Amino acid sequence: MTGWIGGAVFGPEALEAMGQAFDQAWAEIADNFGASVVEVEAARLRLAEAVLSVAAEDSTDVPALKHAALRWLLIKPGSGIRSAA
């Protein structure tokens, strides 16, 4: 089974890796957002967009996906993520 997301087709291994990358990235950045359900959900949607933006059909490298998604958030205006530097 494959998943069609945003015009791209992802196989089961890629979908699993994307989910793991999302979960690991969220664990790293979740404390940057308030307790507001709306704020947290908006941040999670931005992270999901980041993972989808950096993934390819054959993406299975979870650490690479996670780091690329976090970098994407750092350079995306309005993402709400700021560099610690």
If you had to describe this structure to a student in words, what would you say it looks like?
This protein is mainly alpha-helical and 85 residues long. The chain has one domain. Helix content is 59%, strand content 7%. The protein is built from 3 helices and 2 strands. Strands 1-2 form a two-stranded antiparallel ribbon. Strand 1 (3-5) and strand 2 form a beta hairpin. Helix 2 packs across helix 3. The mean pLDDT is 84.
Can I get a quick summary?
Helices cover 59% and strands 7% of the residues.
Features:
single chain; 85 residues; mainly alpha; two-stranded antiparallel ribbon; elongated
* Biggest pleated sheet: 2 strands, antiparallel
Low-confidence stretches: none
| Mean of pLDDT | 84
Strand order of the largest sheet: 1-2
Number of domains: 1
- Count every helix, treating DSSP H or I runs of 4 or more residues as helices: 3
Instruction: Return Rg in Å.
Output: 13 Å
> How many β-strands, per DSSP?
2
How helical, in percent, are the residues? 55-70%
Write the layout of secondary structure elements.
Blueprint: E1 3-5, E2 8-10, H1 12-29, H2 37-54, H3 62-75
Antiparallel strand pairs: 1-2
